[in-house]
Specification:
Layout (H helix, E strand, L loop, with lengths): L1 E10 L9 E17 L5 E5 L2 E2 L4 H7 L9 E7 L9 H15 L8 H13 L5 H7 L3 E5 L2 E6 L6 E6 L6 H14 L5 H16 L7 H19 L4 H12 L4 E5 L6 E6 L10 E3 L2
Parallel strand pairs: 3-5
Antiparallel strand pairs: 1-2, 2-5, 2-6, 3-4, 6-7, 8-10, 8-11, 9-10
Length: about 280
């Protein structure tokens, strides 16, 4: 059995595709598992017991990474919410790449590369940040131009994710940000997101008990403002974030592509139980 957790991006979404840095953490409350059953019949794939027709098998075969003669049944079971910003497609792609390693079709050092190619099928051009987050067991500073850097925070802030009530569409969100950049030459949004990411990293690695919570709050709020500027916070998402703030959250921002999906929130005290929030352990 192959198993991988979900991921949660703290900051850097979209800017990471433009050469920026993101902070991503594994989210172990959710996971995807892949089981292979040998069979001499044709190759079949099921996702949560339903036939899976997203084309990932055809892609791997067209790239000559999976032989056309390979047969059997692939059973994928996942409780990672789909189209919600938590890396459901990335977890599946990494699991498939690991399957290729197990059967000797690729080397282990090719897992990231192959999984990223597979994720392109779901999202268009993949930055690889979701793949890196799914593959890691630690928090990462991720950039497309450098090796991911893992780090251990000096403290455990009370961070949670919750569903906004509407799905997200990564391809559409990426296209929207690209259009914004083309029509807003000289905009500071990418620089502001990069600054927010650095501020969040500094807060997570700080030993100053008096300032780090406020620093983290400011960084998350600045990251959320970038989503707002890109036009990626619609009414549902905004209402959900406002509800969290009204219930006591210090900050709330989209995690993932925006426009829907999950929201990351920061709390000083434990949040009300009726909100059904999922903790993010860094």
């Amino acid at each position: 059995m192959i198993s991988h957790s979900a991921k949660c991006i703290l900051s850097g979404e979209h800017t990471v595709l433009n050469g920026g840095t993101a902070i991503v953490s594994p989210l172990k409350a959710y996971k995807t598992t892949l089981e292979y059953q040998e069979s001499s019949l044709k190759l079949e794939m099921f996702f949560n017991k339903r036939p899976f027709t997203q084309g990932i098998l055809s892609l791997l075969q067209s790239l000559a990474l999976l032989p056309n003669t390979f047969s059997g049944i692939l059973n994928v079971n996942s409780n990672i919410p789909q189209a919600s910003g938590l890396g459901s497609s990335a977890a599946l792609c990494v699991a498939m790449a690991n399957l290729l390693v197990q059967h000797g079709y690729i080397l282990a050092e090719k897992i990231f590369e192959v999984a990223r190619m597979c994720e392109n099928l779901f999202h268009g051009k993949s930055s690889g940040v979701d793949i890196a987050g799914v593959m890691s067991d630690k928090v990462l500073l991720y950039s497309m131009n450098n090796e991911p850097k893992s780090f251990v925070p000096t403290w455990q802030p009370k961070l949670y994710v919750s569903y906004s009530g509407v799905p997200s569409n990564t391809k559409q969100a990426v296209a929207k940000v690209r259009k914004y950049r083309d029509s807003s030459i000289g905009s500071n949004v990418d620089r502001n997101m990069e600054s927010a990411t650095q501020q969040i990293y500094n807060a997570l690695t700080s030993v100053d008990l008096k300032t780090r919570l406020q620093q983290l709050r400011d960084g998350l709020n600045q990251s959320s403002e970038c989503f707002e500027e890109w036009g990626l916070i619609g009414d549902f998402l905004r209402n959900h974030q406002n509800k969290l703030i009204q219930c006591g959250a210090l900050a709330a921002k989209p995690t993932g592509s925006g426009e829907g999906g999950h929201v990351l929130s920061l709390w000083q005290e434990l949040p009300p139980s009726h909100l059904n929030l999922v903790p993010v352990s860094l």
